[in-house]
Each structure stands twice: as C-alpha cells, then as structure tokens.
Amino acid sequence: MFFDLKFKNIKNQKIILLVLLGFFLSVLVSINYVSKFDNYEISSDDFENHSMVKSDLLKFWIDAEKINNQIKEGKTYFETGSEYRTPYLPSRTILLFYKITGYDLYDLEKKVKSDNGKLLFFIFQALLYYFSLIYFSKILSNKYSKTACLFIIIFLAFEPTLLLYHSSFWSESIFFSIQIILLTLVLKNSKIFFFNILIGFLIGLLTLQRSVAIGYILPVVIYYMIVLKKKSIKPIIFLFFGYFLIIIFLGLHNYIRSNNLYFTATQSKDGLYDYFLPTIVSKENQISVNEAKIKLIKKSDNYIKRNKINLNLESDRLKYYEFKKDKSLEIIKRNLFESIVFALKKTAHFVVLDPFRHVYYFYKYEYKGKLETRFYKSEKHQGMIKLRIFYSLIIYLISILGFISMLKNKEDKSTWLIFFSIFYFIILTGWVGNTRYFAPCLVYLSIFFGNGMESLNKIFFKKDNHTI
Predict the structure, then answer these.
(1) How far is the C-alpha of 458 from the C-alpha of 405, rounded, in Å?
(2) Which residue of 80, 202, 270, 289 has the lowest C-beta tally within 10 Å?
(3) Strand partners, 218
C-alpha cells in the first residue's frame, strides 16, 4: 500500500528513534522562537515589523487575509487572490490552518496578531516533514547500506539549515516534505499508471509551493529515460498527465480571477532585470552599479510611457514583465562572458551553507533599517563566514566521496536523479546568490552525504554494511 507505515515493517528501529528525536528537537526550537520572537520590533528606521512575519513572509500574510475577506464578500475560490507573483500555496496554507484552528491572522488594529497559534503551525510543519522521513526510510532501506541509510536520515533530521525552516513561515519546510515524498515515489521505479500520475501531481504541487519547481519534471523525465529506457514512454505520459492537472488548475485560476491566462509566477520574469542586470550594465558601460540601476529604471519608465502602461492593471503589468524579461535576455546575450562570470560568482556564494540564517539574519536582527543595526555585513556576520565555509566544505567533501562511490555501482541509477535534481536548482536559482534558495538541494545532497559516510566507515573501520 502507498502509505503502509507500520513500524514493524521498518526493520531498523534506530531510524524511528532518530526521526522522533529530530521532531522533538524541532518542537523545542519552535517553542523557543515563539516565546522570544512572537512580538513586534521597531527598526532603526522607525518601521514596525513583527519579528516572525516580515519581508516576503508579510506578503503571504497579506494575501491570506485578502483571500479571507474576499470569501466573506461572497466570491468563489477561483475569484480570490492577487497577481500570481509569489508562490501560490503558502498564503492559502496559512489561511486554511487559521480557519481550522479558529485563530485570527490580524488583530483589531490590522497588525499581525501575536499569540495566535504560530507554535501549532510549526508543529504541523514538523509533523509533515518527519512523517515524510519515515516514509522515505522505507525506500532507502531497500537501496543503500545500513550506515548510508542511517546517515541520510541523520542529515535530514538534524542538519540545522534544514531543521530551522520548520520553525518559520517560509515556504521551505512544506516544500522539503513534498520533495521527500516525491523522491520516495520516483525511486520506486514503478510503471504503474497511478504512481506516475501521482508523481506528476506532486511535481505540480511542488510548483505551487515554490514556483522555481515548475521545470522540475525534466530531471524526473531524464531519470525515467535512463532507468526504464524504451519502457519509459507510458510512465512519462502518465507523469505529464498528473503534472498538467495542477498547471491547468493554476492557469485557470489566474484566468478566472484576472481574465489573464498565465502559468508562471511573475517574479520569475523581472528578477534578472532588477537583481542581475545592474552589475552587467555597469561593466558594459563602465559606470557604477547605482548608475546602472538608474539607467535601467529610466529604460523601463520610458517603456511604460511609450506604451501607455497602467501598472494598476494586471494585464498591463504582464506586458511590463515581458518587456523586462526580453530586455534582460538581450543584454545578457550581448554580454555573455561577463554574465557567466558574474553568475558563477553569485553561485559560489549561493552554495555556502547558512545554518545561522534564522537565528541571526531573520529573527534576532533587522532585515531592513540602518546598516549598522543589521546582521548583513555586521562584525558577527563577517566572523561567521569562515565558519560557514568550513562547515560547507566538510559537507561537500563527504558528499563528493559519496557521489564517487555511488558512480561505481553501475546498477544504481538514482545517482543521476540526485545529480540532475541538484543541478536543476543551482542553474535556476544560483545566479540570485541567496543561500536560502540552495536549501532544497540539501534534500538530494543527503543521499550523497549518507553514502559518503559509508565510504568513510569502510576506510577507517574496514566494515562493509549490507542493506538494512
């Protein structure tokens, strides 16, 4: 059966214990964070933020409340929501949770409410995640050695970069859970049509949770072609069927809500223009980055005036985003070498793990305000960079060892699924340079890490562990 999770069917009871310990640790972290940070802070620029709901998270909260009010006004579900700019599911998940629990999102002063079940939401996220680990352990125990399996679960259960997301409203925690369940199903290598429709459906769900996953179906298709070869045609058709059920649902919602049919988050269209191009334009024109930003703003303003774009209309904003996307690709093609070099520099920063992100960058310190009061570029931030690099190197060296050891097993094709999955997320988000966007890669990297630890075990202890 799909969710046959009876403990007696999992041979290694150590895994159950590890998962339970990880869950309880996550709950303790959440209790600590909620007790300290479920309140308001006054930034050095006199702007008031809720310590746990600010930056992009506030957009989830605002959209959730907007949908709630629209439903109260009598609108149907497909008429609710705003422009599909940020991930689709997080705001709706938050709203659904607060509807079920009966708590309010905002207080009477229209401020994010404190003491309103945030801890329960974090526990829900942790339950979903650690449940997925138990399910994942079943396929691991059939594919890898006892040592590898244990260290994969240890990594996923306790690695702090992953662990701390369960104690926040970022979209990552639920994204990880979907990733793990999806990975479990894919590794079954099943030709049964139901499983492949379900896999496609989960890839679509992954896309709704974070829009960057919209193309993740490609690594899975490549894996199918490698493993199933000529027998992959029908499974791939069923895969796309399940996937398009979600994508069509998304497009239909956008069309009914706004009379505009589109399937990709709009932030994916202007991100290059706003965050990547200034450096490229500065090099091309031998000007400062700030001057390049001004130049790009003028260019986009001219487009708005020339084409009489009304940014209050979603249809006009979509044209504006297309302009910025097309202009970005044009400038990048014209400066291809410089663009590649800059993207590689950003990716080098992107892959440095940041287990301190939540404690320091988001909760404890300001994310805006005067620079001297912010964690970014502070003395503490600079002091932690060396520690982060050292930590990252240890994880990567062990993982590379695991990758090499897995390559030696010609029968195990899962190596390529893991490799292509990591490659996919690096290519799509590495250029941003934000370490948060690398977090999904850690789910796949855990497989290499676990097998790397098994290799070290053989080297130092001369032990050869069979599968569990």
Answers:
(1) 11
(2) 289
(3) none
pLDDT tens per residue across span 348-375: 999 999 887 766 667 777 666 665 566 6
Q: What is the pLDDT of residues 162-191, one digit of tens each?
A: 999 999 999 999 999 999 999 999 998 878
Contacts of 284 (CB under 8 A, 6+ apart): 331, 334, 335, 338
Predicted TM-score (pTM) above 0.90: yes
- Whole-angstrom distance, CA of residue 402 vs CA of residue 151: 11
Amino acid type, 150? L
Between CA 56 and CA 169 the distance in angstroms is 10
First to last CA, the chain: 20
Q: Record the tokens describing residue 406, joined without a space.
A: 């897995």
